[in-house]
Amino acid sequence: MLVSLVMHGTPLLFLAAAALYGQSAAGPADLTTGRKIFESQCALCHGNTGTGGRGPSLNRPKLNKASDETGIRKVISDGIPPEMPAAWQLSQREVASVAAYVHSMGAVPPEQIPGDSVRGAAIYRARSCANCHIIAGEGAGFGPELTAIGARRNAAHLREALLRPAAFVPEEFASIEAVPLKGEPITGLRVNEDSFTVQIKDSARHFHSYRKSDLKSLRLLRDQSAMPSYEKSLQPGELDDLVAYLVGLRGEQ
């Protein structure tokens, strides 16, 4: 793989990559510098080799938020609020170096993982996952859209999310509980909230609106997920198949 060879310092590939990715106004981009900065400041979310984790996978030819290296530099410099902070601490040359290294990750082939994606698609349908997720416009949007989940998350992350979903709940899909002064508590997703009101969508897609003055309590359930764990309901082979299916969902490339 290009990245692994560059990381081991192969001179010919390094020179070719340097020529390919060009120079910034503040000096030439340096893949070695870019790799070191990436591993120390970016790998926590994107993985050491860019295969994703908390953040999206970067080892594909075209990124959703940046179509070329210039776009990657802009994303690094400006960030993507609220998920990704701006890299204000990096110089222009350092930004260019990280962008060149991220761009080089597009040469990394997809993961080779066990499992059968066709069987995985059948498991996805049998488990009625479309009741909460959307793939290519089909399904319901109570949970995160999965159309390009394989381009944003690696196999290890997806497997853990299936086994321990409460550990990987995106902020916008965190459950919220409202306990009214009169009536039963409601748990669901926060659709909107301001200083005086809150709107909640429950798992049956019903919407509930409350004035905060009419509530006993309102709390965010950070350690809970609407999605059940599949640790006991799927056999290891079935889990491999479902992960293989999800990894293959890469949207438009």
Characteristic key phrases:
single chain, 253 residues, alpha+beta, Cytochrome Bc1 Complex, Chain D, domain 2, SH3 type barrels, 3 domains, 5-stranded antiparallel β-sheet, two-stranded antiparallel ribbon, 9 strands, disordered N terminus
Overview of the molecule:
This protein is an alpha+beta fold. The chain has 3 domains: 2-107, Cytochrome Bc1 Complex, Chain D, domain 2 (Orthogonal Bundle), CATH 1.10.760.10; 117-164 and 230-247, Cytochrome c-like domain (Cytochrome Bc1 Complex, Chain D, domain 2), CATH 1.10.760; 175-221, SH3 type barrels (Roll), CATH 2.30.30. Helices cover 36% and strands 15% of the residues. The strands form 3 sheets. It has a 5-stranded antiparallel sheet with strand order 8-7-6-5-9, with no helix packed on it. Strands 1-2 form a two-stranded antiparallel sheet. A hairpin with a 2-residue loop joins strand 3 and strand 4 (138-139). Helix 3 crosses helix 6 (92-104), helix 5 (69-78) packs across helix 6 (92-104) and helix 9 packs across helix 10.
Please outline the helices and strands.
Blueprint (H helix, E strand, L loop, with lengths): L1 H6 L3 H11 L1 E2 L2 E2 L2 H11 L1 H4 L22 H10 L13 H13 L12 H10 L7 E2 L2 E2 L9 H4 L2 H9 L11 E6 L5 E8 L3 E5 L5 E5 L3 E7 L14 H12 L6
Antiparallel strand pairs: 1-2, 3-4, 5-6, 5-9, 6-7, 7-8
Radius of gyration: 21 Å
Number of strands: 9
Shape: globular
Q: How many discrete domains?
A: 3
Instruction: Please outline the major beta sheet.
Output: 5 strands, antiparallel
Class from secondary-structure proportions: alpha+beta
What is the name of the CATH class of the largest domain?
A: Mainly Alpha
The second-level CATH architecture of the largest domain is Orthogonal Bundle
Q: Spans with pLDDT under 50 lasting ≥5 residues?
A: 1-25
- Note the total helix count: 10
**H/E series:** HHEEHHHHHEEHHEEEEEH
Task: Name the CATH superfamily classification of the largest domain.
Answer: Cytochrome c-like domain
Strand content: 15-25%
- How much helix is in the residues? 25-40%
Under CATH, the topology of the largest domain is which?
Answer: Cytochrome Bc1 Complex, Chain D, domain 2
Write down the overall mean pLDDT. Answer: 83
Straight-line N-to-C gap: 20 Å
Provide the spatial order of strands within the biggest beta sheet.
Answer: 8-7-6-5-9
